[in-house]
Amino acid sequence: MNETIRTHDDLLQMLDALLREPTAFWDGFYADRTKRIPFFVDKPDENLVRYVEQLEIPVNRVLELGSGPGRNALYLAEHGSQVDAIDLAQTSIDWANERARERQLDISFRQGNLFELLFEQGAYDFVYDSGCFHHIAPHRRPDYIRVVSDALRPGGCFALTCFVEGGQYGGSDMTDWDVYRQRSLNGDLGFTEEKLRSIFEPFEVLDIRLMQEAAPTDSVFGLSGLWTALFRKK
Q1: What are the strands of the beta sheet with 108-111, ordered from one edge?
Q2: pLDDT tens for residues 4-44?
Q3: In what residue span(s) does the Methyltransferase domain sit (predicted)?
Q4: Nearest 10 degrees: CA dihedral of 125, 233, 160, 28?
Q5: Phi and psi angles of residue 53, each rounded to the nearest 5 degrees, phi first
Q6: 184-200 residues labelled b (16+ CB within 10 A) or e (exposed)
Q7: What are the φ/ψ torsions at residue 63 (nearest 5 degrees)?
Q8: pLDDT at 141
Q9: Of the residues 10, 26, 57, 78, which has the maximum number of CB atoms within 10 A of its CB?
Q10: How many H helices and E strands in the chain?
């Protein structure tokens, strides 16, 4: 592999290689479906249900970033959305497709890196990310914001869930500079409300709050230690 840095993209790819879990890691993560991973359950996020059923934000066409086994994409498709969903792991895409076939739902699941895949610009009412953003290294945040903004139509909404800084289930409290000093995200990054408002300043903030804890018998997924945030493209 050519390791000469000549362009900005070369620099990003070098930093990615130092900090990002390889695709094989995520393929292995989703290979064992019996693991006691909270978000392996087939339930939508409680905040997503609120956005759709109470706030009634437009979700005619949706892009999901980091779909995992497809639980949120399935919910959106069942509520009439045309959903395009991506994930880095082929094992999670396979699992999501199985779930979709069982419910006879037509969802476009694609395997790939969100910074390398092409999306139709200005085509989506809603972009959703449940747990992808806190695995994104700081040097990729401008690209992440560009992907989201380019995908959304004017006035479209973007929402995410991510770890609270120093939260119960994850969310390192390291600074962005420390990520590069230590050459590690320490698993995943945590955020404060102030950090989220600063990072996503290009968007209008509609709502930032902690995720509501859901009981195992509830029809939704809810876990303490996560932020939920809803933004609108200006």
Answers
A1: 108-111, 82-87, 61-65, 124-130, 152-163, 226-233, 203-210
A2: 999 999 999 999 988 888 788 888 888 889 888 888 899 99
A3: 62-156
A4: 70
A5: -95, -25
A6: ebeebbbbeeeebeebb
A7: -115, 125
A8: 97
A9: 26
A10: 8, 7
pTM score > 0.90 for this model?
yes
Amino acid at 187: G
129 CB burial (10 A radius; 0-12, 13-18, 19+): buried
C-alpha to C-alpha distances, 65 to 16, 72, 119, 128, nearest whole angstrom: 18, 11, 11, 6
Q: What stretches of 183-227 show up as alpha helix (H) in DSSP?
A: 193-199
Question: Domains plus CATH for the chain?
Answer: 8-233 (3.40.50.150)
pLDDT digits 0-9 by tens, 130-155: 999 999 999 999 999 999 999 999 99
User: Residue 69 class from Cβ within 10 Å (0-12 exposed, 13-18 middle, 19+ buried)?
Assistant: buried
- Measure the N-to-C terminal CA separation of the chain; round to a whole number of Å: 41
| CB-based contact 229:195 (threshold 8 Å) | no
